[in-house]
Amino acid sequence: MINGNFNEYQLSGELLKEISLLNFVSPTEAQKMVIPAVLAKKDIIVKSQTGSGKTAAFAIPICELVEWEENKPQALVLAPTRELAVQVREDMFHLGRFKRLKIATIYGKYPFHVQEKELKQKTHVVVGTPGRLIDHIERGTLDTSEIHYLVIDEADEMLNMGFIEQIETIITSLPQERVTILLSATMPQDIHVLCSKIMKNPTRVEIEDKNPAVDRIDQERYLIDPSDKMQLLRDLTMVENPDSCMIFCNTKQTVDEVFAELLKLNYSCEKLHGGMEQRDRLGVMNQFKQGLFRYLCATDVAARGLDIEDITLVINYDIPYDRESYVHRIGRTGRVNKLGKAITFVTKNETKFLKDIHDYIGNEITLKERPHEETVHQSKQDFKVKNNTLPEIKETKGALLSTEIMKIHVNAGKKTKMRAVDIVGTLCSIQGITAADIGIINILDVSTFVEILNDKGELALRELQITPIKGRLRKVSKADR
Ligand code: AMP
To answer: What domains lie within the chain, and their CATH numbers?
Structure first.
């Protein structure tokens, strides 16, 4: 059993370096259980709350175990939503960066042919949502013959969303010889049935959160008339004056309405729901992660698994009708041992949902009186000042890694028959650069992108101005990130 240090695992230097650059000092409880099991190639079922470091728990051993030389995908991660798939991909990308792992994301509402092209290239890990993954498997654009690691993330949500048959369809296309990892915040009976069908003598672990999110989060509720919700939202945001706040509504329409009202009032805000274009959804998530605006109005699309630093306040403008959603929503604050606050609006007709939540969390949410007019008035000035000040930009995960890595653009690609070996050969002919300094190479039709690691970017960039690649001097420049 590992106690407090990643060095105690049999992990390669590349991975340990990535872990340390991500500032992971010691493994979380989930990681202590999952990393050794997966490294020993054992199936494992993990019951663990959101925010417990689950992604890295499976991503670390998988990044360690996949073989770089293999061109076909070796690991498949199933996620219930596109946002979660993108986030898991990001985490795996950071962890696998020094090993030069290629991680593809596959989800619906995105051009099929672009994904098809990506899958044609060397790919180590595929992260995706079930429907589109099946399309690719059935059309032969995703080769599953070498998938030896399968992760089913947020399994309970997958079942809630009716993905069970799709998951089974995907699994029938995978090799029998594989490690299966299933993670879930809750363990309904259906999951046990699924596990018995698809896993071999799995180890079952339940990570007891010693300091669960629900205990770390200061939870309050207000009994409110529906027509008065907007006014209460204004008053409370003024009094609380959060640096970063998520406002959850039950429908897209309410998100649109609340967002429009807040915009009218000049709040620094954005919205997120399933009716928006995928590109816009991802753009909003990224901007919120970086702290470019303070208030995000969203449906439950944003409730699950999404990991955003330092959200100080969650407001349930509508009480969630499903008790598990409550825990997921409020879990957006109080991440990884931080404190947070969650406020829930409850109308007279919604007391049955409230009771259900109370039974589920084993506690009563504190009932509060709305703030006095005087208090709201006194808060106005501070609120205005903060609202008119640009939020502090948060350092994105992996920013530290990026300082050591420079992405270079070469204006030649597949059309001029550029191959990875041509790039590697040229770079290695430069004194001071070896293959270990070369990261991911992405060859497109008329361009090639190369990551240069270990702070050797400037050297490579300078030398490539005077060093021919494949017999010719190429236009080489620093690529925009
Ligand atoms: P997850 O449960 O995967 O959503 O992870 C929650 C957050 O914890 C993410 O921001 C991770 O980057 C972070 N994290 C994961 N493992 C560790 C660790 N060992 N030490 C510190 N932070 C971690």
So the answer is: 6-206 (3.40.50.300), 213-387 (3.40.50.300), 404-478 (3.30.70.330)
